[in-house]
């Protein structure tokens, strides 16, 4: 059994300067698949190059809500997403969504970019990687109206409410656990995950951010995801091997364009 890091940023420092070493350390911990996430159109060439150079690395393309004010208008963004999705290593869209906590981009710009990603997801039958913070109602509303309840995806680095969890599950979405799950004061998040079905769980690092205990405060990397998976097994009352099996199967089900030779 092995793990897949469903969300990391291999193009971010310090991992970007040592991709080979980063992946080697993760593989030594039985992490055998990696999804490096797009956050800006300017990063497409970089992330696809990383994915192309490594058999077990794949990528998404997208515009993070923080960057949405600086990106293309909705229709132009949609066209670029659809075009770039033809790359064999591009397996989804995002990171997209809404972030009203920081509001680095106006809400209107975030919503327009989010709509473009949803329309591209429907057109290409590829899943979305969704970032949502302090925007739960608008996120679900847009998934139901623009996404027509048919767009697929994952709520990444989930730290939301039970309401958001239930709404996302009802829409067929997956829920991803990050290093936050291991934090000492995160009992509320652990409680939320207790009611996520095993067949809807993913695990991720969001590296280089959110390193789990006992690495908290350090730069995160995919090798550390084992600690999150172990804590998730405790929360769910199942074995570590069960978490490996379920989350890997779920990842390959959602990101159906992915092929891993170790499977």
Question: What are the segments in which pLDDT stays under 50 over at least 5 consecutive residues?
Answer: none
- How much of the sequence is in beta strands? 15-25%
Can you count the helices?
9
Number of strands: 8
Helix content: 25-40%
The radius of gyration computed from the alpha-carbon positions, rounded to a whole number of angstroms, is 17 Å
Strand order of the largest sheet: 1-2-3-4-5-6-7-8
Oligomer: single chain
State the secondary-structure class. alpha/beta
Q: What is the succession of H and E elements?
A: EHEHEHEHEHEHEHEHH
Distance between the termini: 9 Å
Mean pLDDT: 97
Main beta-sheet annotation:
8 strands, parallel
- Overall form: globular
